[in-house]
Amino acid sequence: MPWLFLTAAGVLEIVWATAMKYSAGFTRPVPTIGMIAGMAASFWLLAMAMRSLPLGTAYMVWSGIGAVGSFIVGVAFLAEPATAMRMAAAGLIIAGIVVMKIAS
């Protein structure tokens, strides 16, 4: 169950980071409220996962899911560049998440 909580927390990190982008510096209320709600839920699920998982593992996987997911959202929906270097960096983060999961 902690890995399910952690995965959901990572997905919600993508949600709140994307909502933050759409909030335009907190000037748009709906995305700002979505960001706050997503952030609160993400932190709560991360805390639930940390009841059983080591701090380093949980935080690294959570932030990695958020980072790679936000990168994918940026490329897919915000016309951000998908250069070879950026793709390689995302791949390294994914590799780190996989190794951390295996090590746990």
Can you describe this structure?
The protein has 104 residues and is mainly α. It has one domain. 82% of the residues lie in helices and 0% in strands. The protein is built from four helices and no strands. α1 (2-22) packs antiparallel against α2 (29-49). The protein is flat. It starts with a helix and ends with a helix.
- Strand segment tally: 0
Overall pLDDT confidence: 96
Strand content: under 5%
Q: State the secondary-structure class.
A: mainly alpha
Shape: flat
Q: Low-confidence parts lasting 5 or more residues at pLDDT below 50?
A: none
Rounded to an integer, what's the Rg over CA atoms?
14 Å
**How many structural units, i.e. domains?**
1
Quick structural summary:
By secondary structure, the protein is mainly α. Helices cover 82% and strands 0% of the residues.
